[in-house]
Every structure is written in C-alpha cells, then in structure tokens.
Amino acid sequence: xxxxxxxxxxxxxxxxxxxxxxxxxxxxxxxxxxxxxxxxxxxxxxxxxxxxxxxxxxxxxxxxxxxxxxxxxxxxxxxxxxxxxxxxxxxxxxxxxxxxxxxxxxxxxxxxxxxxxxxxxxxxxxxxxxxxxxxxxxxxxxxxxxxxxxxxxxxxxxxxxxxxxxxxxxxxxxxxxxxxxxxxxxxxxxxxxxxxxxxxxxxxxxxxxxxx
Length: 212
Fold this sequence. Notes:
The protein is α+β, with helices and mostly antiparallel strands. The protein has two helices and 13 strands, in the order αβββββββββββββα. The chain starts with a helix and ends with a helix.
C-alpha cells in the first residue's frame, strides 16, 4: 500500500473514532412492590425484581435484579420491602438479623428499536435507596458498611458511587425500603463504527483505481 493510501486510511479511522457516539449515562429508580417482584406470595429468602421499561437512544429494556435476605424471608408490607428474619419478627426492618443484598443486575426484554445498541452495550449499577417510615431518631442502618441515621424518608446515595451490588443492614428503629436507584451506561460497540470507516476506505480506493 502506498504512503498516501496509508495516510488516507489513518485519517478515515481517526475521523471515524472521533465521530463515534460518547457513552450515554442516565438514572432511573424502581419501586419494590407487588408489581415489580417476579414471584408471587408467599415470599422466600430470594426474590427477583424487574424494573419498568427504560429507554435510551430509541432502544428499550428492563432491568432484572435479585434481592436476597441473609436470614428469613423477603416481605412487602404496604408495598415496600421488609424482612421477616426470625420467629415472631414483624415484616419490616426492625431486627439485627434483618439484612438484604441487591445484586445480579441484568438487562432484559431488550429491543434495539432501530438503534445500533445491543443489550451487551448497556451496563447498570446501583446508586441509591429510598426509605419509608425512617424518620425517628432511632431509625438507622448501613449500606455497604456505611451508616445512615434518622432520614425522614429520603433517598440515600451509596457511598463510593455506583456499585455492582449493595448490602443493606438494620441498625436501629423500624423502617422499610421504598425504592432503589440505578445508573445505566450505554456505550455502542466501536466495531460498528470501524466497519463503517472500512467501507468508506474501500469506496475511496475503488474510485482511485477507476480514475487511474
């Protein structure tokens, strides 16, 4: 290949990479209730949940994730998340045994909708939790080892930023989990853009050969 042709190849590839879409980052939340849980009552120590449909660049998907109790069973009192961890325990977070882990975040029900995205282009991590009935001075818990106290039903961000899993433990009082927040990142595979650049180069070389 001649030096001018090599230079042309480099220019096309650089322009292709420069013009490729940047990562798309957006946030959404999912309530933990009878509509999002994926199995019926009575609940067990492990329950899958699924978010409502999310949209990014024309593509749609839902997020499937697991909630696992370290002891006892998952409960959904007043359509919020709680735990029954021992005999005689109520169905809220009110015991030192009440602990759940959120993990296994999987993109499902994906529809490209005419976009260049695939399900593997989208990654999701947890960023927050929202609580109910957590307004008393005694109400407290930990998320990944970091303590929150007397929240008054607000949203708590996960310390350290987006996480691939989160463990919530009871520390005091009586409260429930209302919803969880996620951050999704959509990054189109660069291979499709490089392919487009390669097609452009083929057309350029073909034209040059015809002209010569």
